[in-house]
Amino acid sequence: MKTKQIVAFILSLVMCLFLIACGATKEQPDRVDELVENETQASSQPDSTDTDIGNETQENDQTEMAEEDSDSEQQEVSGISEGQVFDLENGTVMLNSGYEMPILGIGTFRLSGSEAENSVYWALRDGYRLIDTARIYGNEADVGRGIQRAIDEGIVTREEIFVTTKMWTDDFDNGAEAINASLERLGLDYIDLMILHHSQPSNDVEAYQAMEQAVSEGKLRSIGLSNYYTPEDFDRLVNATSITPALLQNETHPYHQSMEMKEHLRQYGTVMESWFPLGGRGNTQTLFNDEVISGIAQAHGKTSAQIILRWHLQAGNIAIPGSSNEDHILENIEIFDFVLTDEVV
Question: Is 208 marked active-site?
Fold first, then answer.
């Protein structure tokens, strides 16, 4: 009996240790969840309800920084939305509308006249294929001239460019007219993506329905939203319309990662696009000087701006940094020759 008791005790102990090990394994967070929880600097940032417009113009003082390359040559990154994959080799993502969109572009907020025209032209010359503007920026005609200039010089064809503009809230009651006016100012036969610039419950559904009609007429290819910061507000419009938004453009950057909305967008296959991708509102230089970011930049031989923009793409955010500086425009697109480690993203 003594021997049997000893054997039973040993078997019981082994079983307990086995169960404890299994339990410990179950308690480990899923790798994706772990990466989300450890994203740089943003766990305490609530979703903003601020309605400031546009993309920031990149600050001139850019602090150098870098980070270690991943051992694996990571070329595709699963986005936040189901079925959505950021192709980092080709720099594109397939939208739920069936159109392919570049994941890095140039924003034109606060640019006007020759400044806007030149920035768009330089961007297309340097390899950008995504251009972001808006009616309220007052520069659609300037952006159109920059596009036409690049086309005339044989740098690109219209079909290779993805043009985004936005309908301002004052135009929501006359959506069809606003769409036609943007087409005319841009000098284009169609717009790749038009976005409602802000939530405005009094009449944004009607404005979105005007965009839906324009899709059926071939004037718009994809449609989306900007500055919808709560799941309830987003769903309010989605439930009242027919075409699921292809994209949501909100303020997003390492200090404000929009995780609640990105998680909510999964069910719709809607992609997140970042305005103020480099911080904006006084945060840009703070981000550039952040010890973690600048340390990664030094390790990579890159600038802080390049690390932040690469972080966006690997986190599943389309990024549209704005700049009127020819050197910075080139710098911002030179982010496809390195990979951030999983711990950073």
Answer: no
At 193, phi and psi to the nearest 5? -150, 125
Taking each continuous run of H as one helix and of E as one strand, the counts in the chain are: 12, 14
Q: What is the β-pairing status of strands 130-132 and 106-107?
A: parallel
Give the whole-angstrom CA distance, residue 281 versus residue 263. Answer: 25
C-alpha–C-alpha distance, residues 182 and 203, integer Å:
19
Using only C-alpha atoms, what is the Rg of the chain?
A: 23
CB-based contact 233:212 (threshold 8 Å): no
Tokens of 9: 């005790």
d(C-alpha 202, C-alpha 204), whole Å: 6
DSSP state of 156: -
CA gap 232, 238 in Å, rounded: 10
Which residue among 137, 208, 228, 255 is the active-site one? 137
Task: Please identify which residue in the block is written with the tokens 């976005």.
Answer: 195
Strand intervals (E) in 46-180: 64-65, 76-78, 85-87, 92-94, 100-102, 106-107, 130-132, 162-167
Token pair for 73: 């040559």
- Both tokens assigned to 81: 């939305």
Q: Between the CA atoms of 110, 116, 118 and 123, what dihedral angle is there, to the nearest 10 degrees?
A: 80
List the pLDDT tens digit at each of the 345 positions of the chain. Answer: 444 444 344 334 333 333 333 333 322 222 122 222 222 222 223 333 333 333 444 433 333 333 334 333 445 554 455 557 899 999 999 999 999 999 999 999 999 999 999 999 999 999 999 999 999 999 999 999 999 999 999 999 999 999 999 999 999 999 999 999 999 999 999 999 999 999 999 999 999 999 999 999 999 999 999 999 999 999 999 999 999 999 999 999 999 999 999 999 999 999 999 999 999 777 899 999 999 999 999 999 999 999 999 999 999 999 999 999 999 999 999 999 999 987 766
